[in-house]
Amino acid sequence: MEGLKELEEVRRSDNGLFEDKYMLDISQLTKIYPTPKGDYVVLDDLDLKVKHEEFISIIGHSGCGKSTLLTMIAGLNPISRGTIVANNQTIKGPGPDRGVIFQSPSLLPWMTAYDNVMLGVKQVFGHGTKKDRDDIVKYYLSKVGLEDAMYKKAKELSQGMQQRVGIARAFALKPKVLLLDEPFGMLDSLTRGELQDVLIEVWNQEKITAIMITHDVDESIFLADRVIMMTSGPRAKVGDILEIDFERPRLRKDVLEHPDYYKYREHLINFLEH
Amino acid sequence: MKDRSIHILNFVGLGFFEPAIRLAAGEETKKNLIALFKKVLLPVLAVGLFLILWHAGSSYLYNVEKDFKIETARIASGNSGVTTELERIETGESSINSLPSPVAVLGAFKTLLADHKEINLKKEAFALKVAPLNEKNLEFNRVNADKIKEGIAAKKKPIKYTGRPSFVDQIFTSLKTVFAGFFLALFLAVPIGVVLGLSSTLRSSFNWLIQIFKPVSPVVWFLLVYMIVKTFTLEYDGDVSFIISFIAVGLCAMWATLVNTTLGVSTVDKDYINVAKVLNLGVGQKVFKIILPSSFPLIFTGLRITVSVAWMVLIAIELLSQSPGLGTFVWEEFQNGANDSNAKIIAAMFVIGGIGFLLDKLMFTVQKFVTFTEEATT
Ligand SMILES: Nc1ncnc2c1ncn2[C@@H]1O[C@H](COP(=O)(O)OP(=O)(O)O)[C@@H](O)[C@H]1O
Ligand SMILES: [Mg+2]
Q1: What is the pLDDT of residues B149-187, one digit of tens each?
Q2: Residues of CATH 1.10.3720.10 domain(s) within chain B?
Q3: Taking the complete model, does pTM exceed 0.80, yes or no?
Q4: Distance between alpha carbon B168 and the CA centroid of its chain, in Å?
Q5: ∠ Cα B161 B166 B171 (to 5°)
Q6: In this complex, is the C-beta atom of A33 within 8 Å of any C-beta atom belonging to chain B?
Q7: Which CATH topology does B165-371 take?
Q8: What is the DSSP code (8-state) at residue B161?
Q9: Does A46 or B78 have the greater pLDDT score?
Q10: Alpha-carbon distance B375 to B378, whole Å?
């Protein structure tokens, strides 16, 4: 009896340890798309662990299965084999513990920026008071620099502004994990830089785990603690991992002038070219 | 001011006034003159050409009939017959019922309006005459309210004018029927369309039925509704023909809305559906906040078709159901066969067409108001 209890204790502390260490544990993840020409194995036995409050970015050739991986973590895409454990729970479907920012801002164009953010806030903080929810929405919209455009219809906003709303909407739900699928891929480089700054600023305050797909090498170095490089498909896996050792908070200027910057850059480009 | 009025005009679908306003404001004279020519002058010319052709056609047809009559008279009773026949045609005693000329139609239109005024006067006179009586009836109802409740005394109804309705009255009756039919179609087709759009299983289950019912003609719908409603209204002493015609109109016209709603709901942008999933929205929120608004453009296209179809089949259905309205008016005039009957029918035709056009414009304006695809108004 005593022994069993002790075992329980041990297991619990083990769990605790695990919980402290990893936010996301992907093991032996396989994804197969059935096609008319037979099964297409996109991901094959992919393993990846992501620590608490870590920012990782994923790069890889187009079509290797990055979006597939991300949508599976989001719970929007069924898993063929393997498991994804997020915050100690095997994921079964989408949930507000995992926020998603898509490539197209996917705001509801007939609603105002405010209403777009409120839609999710109402869902997640339904128990709070109206004032609380209003505060949350306004706080995050001003965080992303939209205090003056809150009540504009989403369709009236520029692409960049729409994606700001997308960022506010995701953070406002206080997710444990933030998933971003090439969120700035459709923007011009100037706007992209601005939005990277906005994103990293909000993230610095919220400190949540973030996984961001990008095809921009500089973006991945500037934002991430680790860059995951995926092999080309089919049967893609994690090919290489690069630790980015810049301290936070980072300033773009410091990063660009850092002696290690070009070393990192070359490493990534080398991987992509082979 | 100028931009504002142009915006409003475009909004309600009267955009062809735009060049005239810009011209009056002295903007880009050449460009706007060309636009004015295209948008206003050409249509006016087309209408003029149409009137000329119509006039020529009707006098040709008139002469053919006239010649035939005279020829018949000549064969029957020689030259004296021809003279009497010519006289009879002159006095209108022997009527020539071919295609009426534009002028005759305009005359018929005026007659109809005059008739409307006359009937209105009659109504007023009648109302004045029965006013004391109606007052008395009301008084009776008030005094005997308790008895009426207990069923001892019968409630006295106010006396209403029961004379022949005027042409304008018929228009309003028709509009009433078409709106009732339209709302029936709206309340049937949109909810069913949403449900079918949400479930691919239901969609394929009902696909055949929809495909079969969609092309059924108004006449058959009318008969079907008649068979059913007749049984339900055996003891009802209200306006059964109105009930039958608006239900038939609704059932006939709802298919475009049903199909479009189903299509709109089943093809909502995948991004929006993903948003709903990620935010864990419930079914109600998902339908009302995301699916319906994003299908509004298609639903409204369907509703616009529904209104047009409803108005188009209404005439035929009224004609069959003998419910008062423009359809009945046209049919009665045709049966009547008076000298100006044909002209009245054509006048009614233009009124029907004009109202159909206005209804479509109305729907177009409402659609612009509620759908999000309309350009941002900054
Ligand atoms: N629903 C699907 N059915 C079949 N094949 C798919 C589907 N979605 C993606 N694929 C294929 O899987 C591969 C990976 O796609 P994706 O994850 O979008 O790549 P990435 O985001 O890295 O560009 C591509 O070859 C794509 O054609
Ligand atoms: Mg992708």
Answers
A1: 777 777 777 777 777 888 888 899 999 999 999 999 999
A2: 165-371
A3: no
A4: 13
A5: 115
A6: no
A7: MetI-like fold (1.10.3720)
A8: -
A9: A46
A10: 9
CB A26 within 8 A of CB A49: yes
Q: What is the spatial distance between Cα A80 and Cα B224, in angstroms, rounded to a whole number? A: 53
Kindly state the helix (H) or strand (E) to which residue A152 belongs, with its residue range.
none
Residue B309: count other Cβ atoms within 10 Å of its Cβ.
Answer: 21
Query: Coil, strand or helix: which one is B92?
Result: coil
Does a cis peptide bond (omega within 30 degrees of 0) precede residue A234? yes
Nearest CA to ligand 1 atom 7: A33
Could you give the CA distance from residue A79 to residue A45 in angstroms, rounded to a whole number?
Answer: 12
Given a contact cutoff of 8 angstroms between Cβ atoms, the answer to whether A220 and A268 are in contact is: yes
pLDDT, tens digit (0-9, with 9 covering 90-100), for B324-371: 889 888 888 888 877 788 899 999 999 999 999 999 999 988 888 877
Instruction: Give yes or no for a cis peptide into A96 (omega within 30° of 0).
Output: no
Contacts of B376 in chain A (CB under 8 A): 153, 155-156
DSSP state, residue B17: G
pLDDT above 50 for B374? no
- Summarised one tens digit per residue, pLDDT across range A176-229 is 999 999 999 989 999 999 999 999 999 999 989 999 999 899 999 999 999 999
Alpha carbon separation from B77 to A195, B73, B74, B84, B90 (Å, rounded): 100, 6, 5, 10, 19
| Nearest Cα to Cα of residue A182 among A70, A78, A97 | A70
In this predicted complex, what is the ipTM? 0.81
Query: How many other C-beta atoms can be found within 10 angstroms of the C-beta atom of residue B98?
Result: 16
Q: Give CA separation, B66 vs A23, A95, B53, B54, B69, in Å.
A: 97, 84, 20, 18, 5
Residues with Cβ within 8 Å of B63's Cβ and at least 6 positions away in sequence, in order, are none
C-beta atoms of B290 and A109 within 8 A: no
For residues A162 and A216, give the distance between their C-alpha atoms in angstroms, rounded to a whole number.
20
User: CB–CB of A108 and B275 under 8 A?
Assistant: yes
B64 at A interface, C-beta within 8 A: no
List, in order of start, the domains of chain A with CATH numbers.
51-75+89-273 (3.40.50.300)
Measured CA to CA, the distance from residue A147 to residue B97 in angstroms comes to: 74
Q: Which residue of A has its CA nearest to B378?
A: A156
Q: What is the reported pLDDT for A5? A: 52
Q: Which residues pair with A90 in a beta bridge?
A: A85
Do B297 and B286 form a contact (C-beta atoms < 8 A)? no
- State mean pLDDT over B125-134: 85
Q: pLDDT band for B60, please (50, 70, 90 cuts).
A: very high
Could you read off the pLDDT of B20-37 as tens digits, one per residue?
777 777 777 788 888 888
Backbone CA torsion sign across B288, B289, B295, B300: positive
A244 phi-psi bin (left φ>0, alpha ψ -120 to 50, beta other): beta
Residue nearest atom 24 in ligand 1 by C-alpha distance: A63
With 0-12 / 13-18 / 19 or more C-beta atoms within 10 angstroms meaning exposed / middle / buried, residue B53 is exposed
Q: Nearest by CB to A155, which of B272, B296, B376? A: B376
Of the candidates A146, A144, A137, the residue with the CA atom closest to the CA atom of residue A117: A137
Contact yes or no for A100 and B294 at CB 8 A? no
